[in-house]
Write a structure and sequence with these properties.
- By secondary structure, this protein is an alpha+beta fold.
- It has helices spanning 107-112, 127-136, 154-163, 186-201, 214-225, 235-247, 293-309, 382-397, 401-404, and strands at 3-6, 16-22, 29-30, 35-40, 45-49, 54-59, 66-68, 72-77, 204-212, 255-258, 261-264, 270-272, 274-276, 279-281, 284-285, 312-313, 322-326, 345-349, 353-359, 362-376.
- It has three domains: 3-114, OB fold (Dihydrolipoamide Acetyltransferase, E2P), CATH 2.40.50.100; 120-168, Dihydrolipoamide Transferase (Irregular), CATH 4.10.320.10; 199-404, Chloramphenicol acetyltransferase-like domain (Chloramphenicol Acetyltransferase, 2-Layer Sandwich), CATH 3.30.559.
- Helices cover 26% and strands 25% of the residues.
Length: 405
């Protein structure tokens, strides 16, 4: 039986998305779990995967179209089914598609309507860079990328655009002139809207603790000593594991406030803040409390890599239940973060750094890390936040609990 390919919701406030491109043509064989299309939202380009193995018998929504969440954008039939056998219940609502009245067209003719992928789509590039290059009429293949593995980034496209300007119009090497107005990217607009909404609707309060990380860093060093590079555990992996396990004891912090009620989420899905060239994105590690530390490390690394490469999958984003933001790599001691709606809390952690500590009548050097929990006061109070941070601290200061639970 044929299966519809649906434009998924990638967040509680997502109402529509742009189908940026199809990765397969009509008539192509696809396998379950294979990426077949990319959709573009305000904050990311995300891959849509095939729900079944079969043949992509129909492309309903053309690349470049923006449609509401839930729209049927294509159809996959199981092997042996014909194009005529595929049901088309969602075809009539597709008013934006400039096509003649529905008729059965031979599959060979339909293939001709799908042009081959331009060479520029095969160039490694960020979603923002692809869009900028397309709008500026610049061939991505002509740009030397400065990102990972030669990936073309936004800065590379801007540099290419500047070389096309007359010398008098090019920006000076010292940087852009003072003053003026710089339009926000779609990602920054989305961040501005959501953070304004969060601060204006959720009454925030903040609780900070300092955590002794000596044992955690020692365990991490032992685990990583003989592990391959792709299997090494980061400080953030330890924090994710500790926070996820602590949330099992404090469900009100793994919840959302909705219309005077508290919605307790059945799973603990941790959003991990990843900094991109144009802003921030939060890929989600699903069911983090039920995964061993090694699995958390490998999945978190893969999520971050897919986010930076612009190859996130639909299940990678949206609908997190708790967020962790780590600025330790920038040598930040401590900071407070704004809650990611509709979540109830976000944990902000700083760098692990040696600090003098008074103990037993003497001063010694200890590795310390500060963690600040931002909480929606409608769903929890200071005592709950304090107890939650105590639980996180207990687990990080006794990291064996992260290996045996």
């Amino acid at each position: 039986m044929a299966t519809n390919v649906i434009l998924p919701s990638l967040g509680f406030d997502m109402v529509e998305g742009t189908l940026s491109r199809w990765l397969r043509n009509e008539g192509d064989r696809v396998e379950k779990g294979e990426a077949i299309a990319e959709i573009e939202t305000e904050k990311a380009t995300v891959e849509i995967e095939a729900a079944i193995s079969g043949v992509l018998t129909k492309i309903v929504v053309e690349a470049g179209k923006t449609v509401p969440v839930g729209t049927v954008i294509g159809r996959i039939a199981e092997p042996g089914e014909t194009v005529e056998a595929a049901p088309a219940p969602a075809a009539p609502p597709q008013a934006p598609i400039p096509s003649p009245p529905p008729t059965v067209v031979p599959s060979g003719a339909e293939k001709k309507e799908i042009p081959p992928k331009p060479a520029e789509e095969r160039v490694k590039s960020s979603p923002v860079a692809r869009r900028m290059a397309h709008e500026a009429g610049i061939d991505l293949a002509s740009i030397r990328g400065t990102g990972p593995d030669g990936r073309v980034m936004e800065r590379d496209v801007r540099a290419a655009m500047e070389t096309k300007l007359p010398p008098s119009e090019r920006p000076r090497e010292a940087g852009p002139p003072p003053g003026g107005t710089v339009p926000l990217s779609r990602m920054r607009q989305a961040i501005a809207r959501r953070m304004t909404e969060s601060k204006s609707t959720a009454p925030h309060f903040y609780v900070t603790v300092e955590i002794a990380m000596d044992e955690a860093m020692n365990v991490r060093e032992q685990l990583n000593r003989f592990a391959p590079d792709e299997g090494k555990i980061s400080v953030n992996d330890l924090i994710i594991s500790a926070a996820a396990r602590a949330l099992t004891r404090f469900p009100s912090l793994n919840a959302s406030y909705r219309d005077g009620s508290l919605e307790i989420h059945p799973r603990i899905d941790i959003g991990i803040v990843v900094a991109l060239e144009d802003g921030l994105i939060l890929p989600v590690l699903r069911g983090a409390d039920k995964k061993p530390l090694k699995t958390i490390a490998s999945e978190a690394r893969a999520l971050s890599e897919r986010a930076r490469e612009g190859k996130l999958r639909s299940d990678d984003v949206g609908s997190g239940t708790f967020t962790i933001s780590n600025l330790g790599m920038y040598e930040v001691d401590e900071f407070i973060a704004i809650i990611n709606p509709p979540e109830a809390a976000i944990l902000a952690v700083g760098a692990v750094a040696p600090r003098p500590v008074a103990a037993g009548g003497e001063v010694r050097i200890s590795l310390r890390m500060k963690a600040t929990l931002s909480v929606d006061h409608r769903v929890a109070d200071g005592a709950q936040a304090g107890r939650f941070l105590q639980e996180v601290r207990k687990r990080l200061e006794n990291p064996v609990t992260l290996l045996v639970d």
